[in-house]
Design a protein that fits this description.
Helices cover 8% and strands 36% of the residues. With 280 residues, it is mainly beta. A four-stranded mixed β-sheet has the order 7-12-11-9, with no helix packed on it. A four-stranded mixed β-sheet has the order 13-18-17-15, with no helix packed on it. A three-stranded antiparallel β-sheet has the order 1-2-4, with no helix packed on it. The longest helix has 23 residues. It starts with 5 loop residues before the first helix and ends in a 15-residue tail after the last strand.
Length: 280
């Protein structure tokens, strides 16, 4: 019959002794061996503001700690390592006390996903108008260039550009997270050139066609002596001196207005005889 080696007996005896010691300690300990975890989530991918930590009660100090997996931790043998994983991760902690008694616990560390910076769609305004920008994706904002903006460090400044241009916004969640950038192009359309012509005169009873450039909407006033008040070229038939006003919108949505005054020449109707004589 083959004899067991001396080393096998020693190792077996040590392992049994460890179990007996741990059992004896557990039975005699006044407090249960427990692990209380605490988690601070990472505010964005790549951030280093996360942490996992534990407090241990019961057992006999000092304790040893091991976190698995070790990736994303500055030291997986510390009770409270700094955590900076790129994605959410579940960590398993093993704690062993002085008497080789062991406890385990697990905890979920979440990485808050980064919201992409959004400056909004490209847009257009008319010269002299203002536009409120509205960026999203974080809590800290910086707009460039800052000229013509009411405040370059908020998400929704008022923009009053004189010329077309590109505005970029740098967005981050906090000081530890990598910033994201987006941009918006603002086109500044020129105001329409509206000219109804010089003031004019007509004979009493005559008509005059008014002329406006091509556009999208027209509003002539007063309307009572016009053939139409919402067309480009109405016929005017005033019975007294009248100023006509046009409020006009072009294809870009920009507006302009102009006026023309028609003066009636009283008693200036042209006489056309019905017959002619050689002396006439």
């Amino acid at each position: 019959m083959k004899k067991k080696s001396h080393w096998s007996l020693v190792i077996g005896h040590w392992f049994l002794l460890s179990i007996v010691c741990c059992l004896l300690f557990t039975i005699s300990a006044s407090a249960q061996f427990t692990i209380t975890p605490s988690v601070t989530n990472v505010s964005c991918p790549g951030g280093n503001d996360g942490s996992i930590s534990v407090s241990v009660s019961g057992g006999t100090s000092p304790y040893t700690y091991q976190w698995l997996p070790a990736s994303g931790l500055d030291n997986n043998m510390f009770p409270n390592p700094i955590a900076s994983p790129n994605t959410s991760q579940q960590y398993v902690l093993t704690v062993m006390d002085y008497n080789q008694c062991m406890g385990k616990d697990s905890m979920q560390l979440n990485v808050v996903p980064r919201l992409p910076a959004m400056a909004g769609p490209d847009t257009a305004i008319c010269k002299g108008d203002s536009l409120q920008l509205n960026a999203t994706g974080g809590t800290i904002y910086r707009w460039l260039p800052s000229t013509s903006l009411s405040n370059s460090f908020i998400s929704d400044p008022i923009a009053s550009p004189n010329n077309s241009g590109l505005y970029s916004v740098i967005v981050s969640g906090n000081s530890v997270c990598q910033a994201d950038t987006d941009s918006i192009f603002i086109k500044v359309n020129s105001l329409p050139l509206l000219d109804l012509g010089a003031d004019t005169q007509i004979a009493e009873g005559e008509q005059l066609q008014l002329n406006a450039p091509a556009g999208t909407t027209y509003f002539w006033s007063p309307a009572h002596s016009l053939s139409c008040s919402d067309c480009a070229n109405p016929i005017a038939f005033p019975d007294s001196n009248t100023s006509y006003y046009l409020f006009y919108t072009d294809s870009n949505g920009c507006t302009a207005n102009d006026s023309i005054r028609i003066t009636i020449i009283q008693g200036s109707l042209l006489f056309v005889p019905s017959a002619f004589t050689p002396n006439q």
